[in-house]
Design brief:
The chain is of the alpha/beta class. It is built from 26 helices and ten strands. It has a ten-stranded mixed β-sheet, sandwiched between helices. Helix 10 packs parallel to helix 12 and helix 14 crosses helix 15. The longest helix is centred in the middle third of the chain and has 36 residues. The radius of gyration is 29 Å and the shape is globular.
Length: 672
């Protein structure tokens, strides 16, 4: 009995492991320990995952073999990397600089091929077809080091956008070349092949960029409160797009990236949903992919004679040199800094997914021999390590430079959200999360003022419980929320008291409800805040989720803009524009336009402003004719009644409510 028990125990540890629970536990242990241990000696965690994969893989200590489960998680991780790259791409900035991505795409595609083909054909003496296929492999790269960029928070740097754009261009071109070569090998390179390829790519593009965004917009609007379902929906879109890409004859990674572009505007970078996407990917799926890459590496090929060593060294040298020259040419043309050149090189030098796809397909078709296959595996290891070190070094340098030369950050920013209607709490909190300065250490304060009455204590407990629900909601993206429930004889005075105690410089509140007997008794909270609070006041009404709007239309009457008070509220409008990838159509006079343009130049924001001199604040019917239901209307007002075109504070909200009842709108009263 005892012998059988010990046999049962020892059998579980037979190599390679077969127990799925033990396998998963080992992978999680590696994901936990590798970054911590290597971080002590300044080695990127990505390198640790790859090294761990080498050690536990079939070519190492044979602890694990590449089974279907590991392949599945690895595929998910790779698709995750490409999806996150697509969804974090600043579309507005990318559109303005797409020519730069195109130029880099040409360099990173052509230069490695121009170097690689002569090496394979003349130096290594491979056939024409083998040399072309191997040279095309040098042009590909995988964004293995992208999580490092994400960690340092520089994903919106222009060098990153250019590299990501170039990645999708070159990988798509190479994979199309692969399809053409395989068609030639199979004898199917005829007019039917080209027609089928063009039709399938057209259907794929239309489905992802037209059908899926409309479905996503409907889903996020109709099921706004189902936050868990949002994440599942996003995952479904990613894998379905990857599958459609396969059907179209291109690699799934292209489909995942395009899915990120399609959902880009609907998922702001600072949103809770985006945090969930990044958290799951960075914590589980992406490390799985990196470990699986390591499991492919067989260091023993280096000792199989001089031919294997020469081929592995030649392939690796060509791969690194081609990408370095591509980054250097891009730097020279667009006058980037040395750190940006290093960042482009780091992001574009890692070979993994597309490289493996090309080589394995060629190997199975007997175009590629064992030496190139093994040399490619060594190339993958070396380039992933080089890319990780280069990207981390460049990221640290760029962050350090931004801290020295960057604009003044609002470290003392204090955001207060008075809650009158708990049904609006999540939308107000979402706006605050988009507004919040990432460098601010202050929490977002959620406030509920309970009238002091006979039921005050029980009402206070109810208010605290509802506010605490928002803490769980906000914790989804790491936002710290402070809950305040207090008693006061008058609600507006309670809000003003807490605002003074917290030194709040930003107050975000909901649009006032239609006047009732209770409202008349308690007083209009927003009017009291407008008249008595010195903070920047934002009054929000959303007719639909904030992420599904298509434009921001902002009205700035001349008296509403003062240079000394514009920095805070204008920076929030810019941040909202950048997060949602929306243009800001700004109605203002020439002097106001000059102030705003000076601010945009000073802060180097990615927000895109389109100025219109039409005085719509004098004729509201004209403004209404310019709006669509998908626009977010922002109205900037001066608190000094005698200096504004608007007759009274009450009139402003009432008029907007009557004329734009179904319009999402945001009133801004700058700080006094």
């Amino acid at each position: 009995m005892q012998t059988n028990f010990f046999d049962h125990i020892t059998k579980q540890f037979d190599l390679p492991f077969t127990n799925p629970v033990l396998i998963f536990s080992l992978i999680l242990f590696i994901i936990l320990i590798a970054p911590i241990l290597l971080g002590k000696i300044k080695i990127p965690g990505i390198v640790g995952f790859i090294i761990a994969g080498i050690l536990i893989g079939p070519n190492g200590f044979n602890i694990l073999k590449k089974n279907s489960a590991i392949e599945l998680f690895s595929t998910i991780g790779l698709l995750y990397i490409m999806f996150i790259a697509g969804i974090e791409l600043d579309l507005a900035d990318f559109k303005r600089k797409k020519h730069k991505s195109f130029v880099f795409g040409i360099f990173t595609f052509a230069v490695p091929i121009l170097i690689g083909f002569p090496v394979c054909y003349f130096l290594l003496h491979y056939s024409m077809l083998t040399s072309i296929l191997t040279a095309s492999m040098f042009a590909t790269h995988t964004l293995v080091a992208y999580p490092i960029v994400n960690k340092f928070g520089i994903s919106k740097n222009e060098a990153v956008a250019v590299t990501v754009g170039g990645t999708i261009l070159t990988d798509t071109a190479v994979l199309i070349i692969l399809a053409i070569i395989m068609g030639a090998v199979d004898g199917q390179l005829n007019s039917a092949f080209w027609i089928q390829l063009a039709i399938s790519l057209s259907i794929f593009t239309a489905t992802v960029f037209i059908v899926i965004p409309r479905i996503a917009k409907w889903f996020f609007t109709k099921l706004e409160s189902e936050k868990t379902s949002h994440y599942i929906f996003v995952l479904s879109v990613v894998f379905f797009s990857a599958f459609l890409a396969q059907l179209a004859g291109i690699e799934p990674i292209i489909g995942a990236f395009v899915a990120g572009l399609a959902l880009n505007r609907l998922i702001p970078h600072s949103s809770i949903l985006m945090n969930r996407i990044e958290f799951v990917g960075n914590a589980l799926f992406i490390p799985f992919f990196l470990i699986s890459v390591g499991m492919l590496v067989d260091l023993r090929v280096l000792f199989r004679g001089p031919d294997a060593l020469i081929i592995a060294g030649s392939l690796t040298l060509v791969a690194i040199l081609g990408k370095y020259l591509s980054a250097t040419f891009t730097q020279w043309i667009f006058k980037y800094t040395k750190n940006q050149r290093l960042l482009i090189f780091g992001l574009s030098s890692a070979h993994a997914a597309a490289t493996l796809a090309i080589i394995l397909v060629g190997y199975q078709a007997k175009i590629i021999d064992d030496n190139i296959l093994n040399g490619t595996i060594i190339l993958i290891l070396v380039t992933c390590v080089v890319a990780s070190f280069a990207t981390e070094r460049a990221s640290r340098a760029i962050v350090a430079a931004e801290e020295i030369t960057g604009p003044d950050q609002h470290h003392t920013e204090n955001i207060l959200i008075p809650i009158a209607d708990f049904n609006n709490m999540d939308s107000l909190l979402d706006l605050a999360v988009l507004f919040k300065d990432h460098n601010s250490l202050q929490p977002i304060s959620l406030l509920s003022v309970v009238p002091d009455s006979d039921n005050a204590q029980s009402n206070l407990l109810i208010a605290r419980k509802k506010l605490n629900d928002s803490v769980k909601y906000a914790s989804g993206n790491g936002t710290v929320v402070e809950v305040i429930a207090t008693l006061d004889h008058n609600v507006p005075s309670g809000v003003l008291r807490i605002a003074k105690e917290k030194s709040a410089n930003i107050i975000i509140t909901g649009w006032r409800r239609r006047t009732t007997v209770i409202d008349k008794f308690l007083g209009d909270k927003s009017s009291a805040l407008i008249e008595n609070s010195p903070a920047n006041l934002f009054i929000l009404h959303l007719a639909k989720p904030i992420t599904v709007h298509k434009n921001i239309q902002m009205v700035c009457p001349p008296a509403a803009l003062m240079e000394k008070t514009m920095n805070v509220w204008l920076s929030k409008v810019c941040k909202l524009s950048s997060e949602l990838s929306l243009d800001v159509i700004c109605y203002c006079d020439e002097s106001t336009q000059i102030h705003i343009q000076h601010f945009l130049s000073l802060t180097k924001t990615n927000a895109n402003f389109i100025f219109n001199p039409t005085e719509v604040w004098k004729e509201w019917k004209l403004l209404k004719s310019r709006l669509t239901v998908d626009d977010l209307l922002i109205f900037v007002l001066d608190r000094k009644i005698e200096s504004t075109y608007i007759l009274s504070l009450t009139y402003t909200q009432s008029k907007l409510e009557q004329m734009f009842e179904n319009q999402s709108r945001l009133l801004i009263y700058p700080q006094t």
